Amino acid sequence: MKAGIFLTLVSLLGLSAAQPHRHRRFHNKPRALVTEVEIVTVTAPLVVIEVFGTDTITFTEGVPQIPAPTSTEAPVSFPPPPPPPPPPPPTTTTPPSTSLPPVVIPPPAPTSSESPPPPPPLPAPTTFSSIQAPPPPPPLSVPEPTFAPAPSIAPAPSTGPVSTGNGYGISYNPYNDDGTCKDANSVSRDIDSLKEYTMIRIYGVDCDQLNTVIPAVKSHDGMKLFLGINDVNSAASEAQQIVDAVKKYFGGDWSRIDTVSVGNEAVRTGAASIGQVIAGMRAARGVLQGGGFTGPVVTVDTIETFLNPDGSGIQLCKESDYNAANCHAFFDTSGYYNKGSEAGDFVTMQVGRFKQGCGDRRTVITESGWPHSSSFPLDVFNTGPVPDESNHIAAISSLKEAFVGNKSDLVLFSAFNDMWKKDFSDTKGTEKFWGIFGAQ
What we know:
Keywords: Hydrolase, Signal. By secondary structure, this protein is of the alpha/beta class.
C-alpha cells in the first residue's frame, strides 16, 4: 500500500518537473489557500527533488518532510491546474435595431504600384458667420374647417345721412329783391345752385320757408339745415312749427337738422335783452326736445356782445350749447386786417378770444364773408377795407383755408345779394352786396 502511494507521488512530482519554467510562478496561486496538509510516511531511498526552482522537498528514509502549516483544517488534493480559458472575442456593442439599412464597408482599394493621389484639401474651418440655420420645416397641411354659411343679414339702416358737398355751410334768405317771399320753385332753384355746400343756414320761419326750404334741401342727399327762430318773444310757437315740419318732411328724423338758433344779433341790435334771449332759448329748447330733437340750441350774436365789458354777455354763452357768433373782418377797426386775404387770420384770432371768454368748446362762425360792392363811392374806403370783387374773392378763399380742418364750423355769408336789406350807419353801404353767387 505504501509502495503504491509512493509511486503515485513520484509520478506527480515527475509531471511537475516536466512543466515549463519560464514564469517561475505558481499557476495555481490564485486557487484556494491550503489550510491542512497530512504527512504520509513511506519507506524509500532518500530522494531530493527540486520543484519550481527554489522550493525543495526532502524525503528522509523514504518519507518527504514538508513543513506543516499551523492550520488544522481538512486536507485538500492538488488537481492539475486547468488550462487558461481562451480570450473572449472582442465585444462589439450593437445598438438596438431601428430598421436602419446595414452598413456596407467597401473593400480595400487594389494595390497599385503608382503613388496614390493626394488627399482632397480639407474644407476651410467653419466660422460662426458662415453657419446657417436649417430651413424651417414645411408648414403642416391642415384642412380648412368648413362651416355652414351664415344667414344673410340686411345692413342696419344708417342713423343719419352721408355728408356730401364741400363740408362748409352757407347762409340763405328766401326773399325777392323787394322783400316779398320767394315761391317754392324759386327756392328750389336757389338750393340747387348751392349743392356744393354741406349745410344751409336760414334765420326764421316766416315766408313759409320751412315748407319751401326743407323740401328743397331734402332732395340733396346729405345736405343739412341750420334752422333759426328770429323772434325770441315767440320762440315756443316757432319751435313748434319746426317740430311739425320735421315730422312732415323727415318723418320725425332729426338727423338732417344740425342746430337750431334763437335770435340773430338780437342783443347787439337792441331787438331783445339778454334776459329775453335766454328765456326764448329755454322755451324753444323745451318744445324741441319734446318733439324729439336732441341737438344743440344756441343764440347767435357778435363776439363783442358775448364779451361785453360788464360781463353780462357770458350768460348767453352759458345758455348756448356751443359758442356761435357772426364775425366779419371787413368791420374790424384795428387797421390790421384791411385786405380780403387776411380774413381767415382775423377770424382765427377772434375764435381764440371767443373760446377764452366763453369756454374752450366747439365754436362755430355762423356768418363770415366780404362785400364785393357798396352804395358809397370807393374813395370813402381809402384808409380801410375796400368792398370790391378782388377782396371778396380773396376773403372767401382765405376763410375756407382757415377752416379746412373743421369745415362744419364755418358758415359763409351769404349765398346771394340781399337787395331787400337796408343799410345802417355802421354797414358802410355794403349790406346788400355780400352774395357769393351774385344777384338772383
